[in-house]
Amino acid sequence: MLTEAVRGRDFPSLAGITYLNSAAEGIPPLAVGQALQQYFADKQLGMDGRDKHAAQWNAAKDLVAEFYGLTAGEVSICSCSSEAYNLAAAALQLKSGDEIVINDLDFPAGATPWLQPSCPATVKIWRSRAGALHTDDLIPLLGPKTRLVTTSLVSFFNGFKVGLPEMIAAVRKHSPALVSVDVTQALGRIPLELDDVDLIVSSTHKWILASHGGGLIGVPSKRAADWTVPAGGWFNLQDAFGPQRFEQAVSLPGAAGFTVGMPNYPAVYAIRAGLEYIRSVGLAAINQSAQPLTVACLEELAKLPIELLTPKDASAIAGILAFRHPKAEQIQQHLRAQNIHVMCHAGRVRIAIHGYNTAQDIEKLLRELRVALG
Fold first, then answer.
1. Topology of 4-20+282-373 in CATH?
2. Which of 89, 102, 52, 74 is nearest to 216 (CA)?
3. What is the CATH number of domain 33-279?
C-alpha cells in the first residue's frame, strides 16, 4: 500500500488512474476479494459452513474492538451506519422535552433520525464557522434536558476533524448527555482515540477498504444499559428460542443489541480482511504517508481561485479536502478525462487521500485543476 510494488500487487485496479475518492468508496485490496470467495466456499457447505461463518464473525469483532480500543464483548456489527443510528434512536426512547444536538457538517445518517416527525425530541444544531465546529458554540446548546450530542469525528462534507477531548469535556460539564461519534471517515485512515465516547459507529466500504453491508458498533460496557435496543429479532435477544419466547422479548444490552438478525456474513468476511490489511500496514504508517500529502494539497488548493471549504488548520483535518466552484461539474469532467477520480456534488468538489495515494497523484491533481480553472 505504501510502496509502488505493494500497490501494484494488492491494488491492480489502480494502475493508470489517480484515485482520490476513498471517502465515497475505498478500493479493496485483493485480499478482500479472496475473503468474499472464501465466504462462497463456506456457504456451499450449508449448515456445516455456519461454524466457519462464526469464526469470521468473532475474528471481525476482535479487530473492530482493537481499532476502537474496546473489548470484543463491547462491539458488534449491523448492516450500515444508518441502521445503527435508527436503532440508537429507538434505544433512547425519547420523549417530549428531550433535546438532541446535531451539527451542520454531519452526514445524514447521524442527523436525520432525530428530524423525523415521529421523534418527540427538540433538535438543536451546532453550527460551523469557517468550516470548523467550535466548542464555544456548543456549550450554549447544552443543558439538563440534553440527551445526546452526535457528531462525525471527520466530516464527510469538508474533512474537518472535531477535537473530541475538548468537546466531550464540555458535554460532561454542562449536561448529562450521551456522546455518539461516527468514525466512518476516520477508521482506516488515522489512529483513533475514543476515550469516553458512549456510542461508536462506522460504515465499512470506505477507508477500511472492505465491502458494503456493514455497520461497526462500539458501546463501552459502562454504557450498555443506555443503549438497549427495543427491537424484535433473534440474534439480539437474550433467549430467542426459550420457553417464554412468545410471551416476552428481552434485548441484549449494548452493542450486541444492534445486530437484530442473521449477520451479513459476506460483509463480515470482507470486514475481517479489510481490517487485517489495514492492521498489517499500520495506521501510523498510513497516516505518516498520507497526511503530508493532504497538508501539501491543502496548501496548494488555498492558492487557487476556489472557495475552500476545508479549514486551513492542518491539525484539524484528516484525509478529506473540499472546495466549491461554480464550474465544479466541468472541473470533474476534465479530471475524469485525465483518469483522476474525485467526488463532485452540488457544486462541491471533494478530494480524499489514502495510503495508496502518492505524491505523483497529488501533483497530477493540482496540475489538472489549474488547467481546468484556466
1. Aspartate Aminotransferase, domain 1 (3.90.1150)
2. 74
3. 3.40.640.10
